[in-house]
Amino acid sequence: MTNILLQTMSAFCDASVNPALWPDALAALAEATDADTVLTAEHSVGGDAGRVTHAWGVDTRLLVTYPDAAAPLSQWLQDADAAGTAPRVWEGEDIVIDGRPLSRSAFAADWLQAQNLHHVLIGVAGGSDGRIDLVLLGRTRRHGRFPSEAVQRLGDLLPHLHRRLTAGEAAELARTVQGAAATALRGVALGVALIRADGGVLFANAAANAVINNGDILSLSSGALALGQPGRRGRFRELLTRIAAMVKDGEQVSPRAIAVPRPARQRPVSLLIWPLPEATEVGPDEPVAIVFIGDPEHRGEIDPMRLCDLYGLSRAEARVAALLAQGHRLDETAQILGVAYETVRKHLKQIFSKTGTDRQAELVRMLVGGPAAVVNVPM
């Protein structure tokens, strides 16, 4: 295998990890096949129009027109059962659309020739979930048809390109899901921290950071999560690392619950260490456990305007409901709002009616467990 093929495959690998490098990878493919234009596209098995996923040397003004222009190409993929022969490289002269060669099709007239592309190679790489990955190489009339060496090289590279396209899409999806999950966790009132095998914190939401940064219950000691009390720091860290070791050894580990007392008779903080059983082969910078942190002294905020939207409460009723959900008594709520106690009681009756509850405890449970309790946090 020549160096240029190895370099091209290496470029595919880099691009599957860093999507910003796909133009470089396609440029390497263009060099390996002496192409003027390279694009990858995704088509459905059902013959629907496709979309460009990556491109090099393509007129950017035409990228948005590809789905409509390539409809005949999608139909050819279905009619010729091209996906069933994947991976395979097709020369443009061998592609027939609606009884006419590709060069005389609407796709050629409206899209290829608009970029002075008169000779193409199309690699059908197969796919999954009803999808076909396709790579199109184009040359100008001046450069002529692709030589047989270019056809062979594309054929050799096509399976590697397909694997890296699939891996890149999976990695991009994982990054998107992880970002969405992190955003969701930031708005949760319960503290959540993802812990490495050495006790280091990979992620902590706002509620967890509030407890950790306070330092009296939890803190960071040498970069690892530890109990705030000096005498218990080592034991807690040992527990975390022991759980991590058991998980990595494939042992079944049950969640561990710990109540951490506070001074001056304050209510204790509750911790739940939840091992991740799928973390048996993770690297040093991946989570092995989740630590859930419940701080009863932290009164989660309820957005009164959300209560208005969710339950049709008036603004006055929503302010009362929000304060009750934060743990305030009726008399405290009246004092905070600067209104009479009886006024708060009247509001509470209306709140019961509108929320379908009849007890204060039931109301609070519904509010703190619902979407109104999602915290507003900076993104």
Features:
379 residues, alpha+beta, Beta-Lactamase, Arc Repressor Mutant, subunit A, five-stranded antiparallel β-sheet, 14 strands
Task: Give a structural overview.
- The chain is built from 14 helices and 14 strands.
- It is α+β, with helices and mostly antiparallel strands and 379 residues long.
- The chain has three domains: 175 residues, GAF domain (Beta-Lactamase, 2-Layer Sandwich); 107 residues, PAS domain (Beta-Lactamase); 70 residues, Winged helix-like DNA-binding domain superfamily/Winged helix DNA-binding domain (Arc Repressor Mutant, subunit A).
- A five-stranded antiparallel beta sheet has the order 2-1-7-6-3. Strands 9-8-14-13-12 form a five-stranded antiparallel beta sheet, sandwiched between helices.
- The longest helix is centred in the middle third of the chain and has 39 residues.
- The model has no long low-confidence stretch (mean pLDDT 83).
**What assembly state would you assign to the polypeptide chains in this entry?**
single chain
Structural class: alpha+beta
Head-to-tail CA distance between termini = 48 Å
**DSSP strand content:** 15-25%
CATH superfamily of the largest domain: GAF domain
Number of helices, where a helix is a run of at least 4 consecutive DSSP H or I residues: 14
* Mean pLDDT figure: 83
What strand line-up does the widest sheet have?
2-1-7-6-3
Shape: elongated
| Percentage of residues assigned to helices | 40-55%
Instruction: Report the top-level CATH class of the largest domain.
Output: Alpha Beta
Report on the biggest sheet.
5 strands, antiparallel
Any idea what the radius of gyration is?
30 Å
Spans where pLDDT lies below 50 across 5 or more residues: none
How many domains in all?
Answer: 3
> From the 3D coordinates, which CATH architecture of the largest domain would you assign?
2-Layer Sandwich
CATH topology of the largest domain: Beta-Lactamase
